[in-house]
């Protein structure tokens, strides 16, 4: 069974600094997709970034980037120049093309310290 | 620009009562799903649908029913609410069904409390 593990329940970062959130997953598939979602206090789930497993290049979206290590089954999220608005719960998620289920980690609560 | 709309946003029920959480999307997405979010457990899939007339169970389907009579709507029914169903519920949809990198689009969530 696919599982997604986020081993850091809580993280904090100083404003303008960089923070990395960890995510590992367990799969026997070779073709899959990985996602990071942000959930601010408003409760709305917002896509931050996604990565296709067949792509070797790490995805980047402005201040957000990933470190995708396929062999290690690791998918960490790096947030650069952290802003107060980055404070939220972050969820890592996994999906294969052959299945319709997304598997979510338990989340990392990020606090940004002014 | 509605996206995925869930109603109600908050609901309090007594044990044994029934209710329906409504979900509608205006993006013509084939795939729709319901998740529940509980502290320390992430999001868990309750039921999903890959098109009108087709539904299937997810990880935690017990106590919930769904139907998909139209592409736009995917209601979630609690037949006899239990305190264990106290949670935040999310409806989510995406384009396509399988071979697609499409992300899930989420509603704003519905907080349900069962007393």
Question: Nutshell version of this structure?
Answer:
With 114 residues, chain A is an all-beta fold.
Descriptive labels:
heterodimer, A: 114 residues, mainly beta, 6-stranded mixed sheet, 4-stranded antiparallel sheet, B: 115 residues, 7-stranded mixed sheet, 50% strand, globular
Structural notes for this entry:
The complex is a heterodimer of chains A (114) and B (115). By secondary structure, chain A is mainly β. Chain A is 0% helix and 51% strand. In chain A, strands 2, 5, 6, 10, 11 and 12 form a six-stranded mixed beta sheet that branches. Chain A has a four-stranded antiparallel beta sheet with strand order 3-9-8-7, with no helix packed on it. In chain A, a hairpin with a 6-residue loop joins strand 5 (33-39) and strand 6. Chain A starts with a strand and ends with a strand. The mean pLDDT of chain A is 93. By secondary structure, chain B is mostly beta strands. Helices cover 0% and strands 50% of the residues of chain B. Chain B contains no helices and eleven strands. Chain B is globular, with a radius of gyration of 13 Å. The relative contact order of chain B is 0.33. The A-B interface holds A 4, 9, 33, 35, 42-45, 47, 50, 52, 91, 93, 97-102, 104-107 and B 31, 33, 35, 40-45, 48, 50, 56, 58-59, 88, 90, 92, 97-101, 103-104, 106, 108-109.
């Amino acid at each position: 069974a696919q599982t997604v593990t986020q081993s850091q329940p809580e993280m904090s970062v100083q404003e303008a600094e960089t923070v990395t959130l960890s995510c590992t997953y367990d799969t026997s598939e070779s073709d899959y997709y990985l996602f990071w979602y942000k959930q601010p206090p408003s409760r709305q789930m917002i896509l931050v970034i996604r990565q296709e497993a067949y792509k070797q290049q790490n995805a980047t979206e402005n201040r957000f980037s990933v470190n995708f290590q396929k062999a290690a089954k690791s998918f960490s999220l790096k947030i650069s120049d952290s802003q107060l608005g980055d404070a939220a719960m972050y969820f890592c998620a996994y999906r294969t093309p052959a299945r319709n289920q997304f598997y979510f980690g338990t989340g990392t609560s990020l606090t940004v310290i002014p | 620009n509605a996206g995925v709309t869930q109603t109600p946003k908050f609901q309090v029920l007594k044990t044994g009562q029934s209710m329906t959480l409504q979900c509608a999307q205006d993006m013509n997405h084939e795939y729709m799903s319901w998740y529940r979010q509980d502290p320390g457990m992430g999001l868990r899939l309750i039921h999903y649908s890959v098109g009108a007339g087709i539904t299937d169970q997810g990880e935690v389907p017990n106590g919930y029913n769904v139907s998909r009579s139209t592409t736009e709507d995917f209601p979630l029914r609690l037949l006899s609410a239990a305190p264990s169903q106290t949670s935040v519920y999310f409806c989510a949809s995406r384009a396509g069904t399988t071979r697609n990198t499409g992300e899930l689009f989420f509603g704003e969530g519905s907080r349900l409390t069962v007393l």
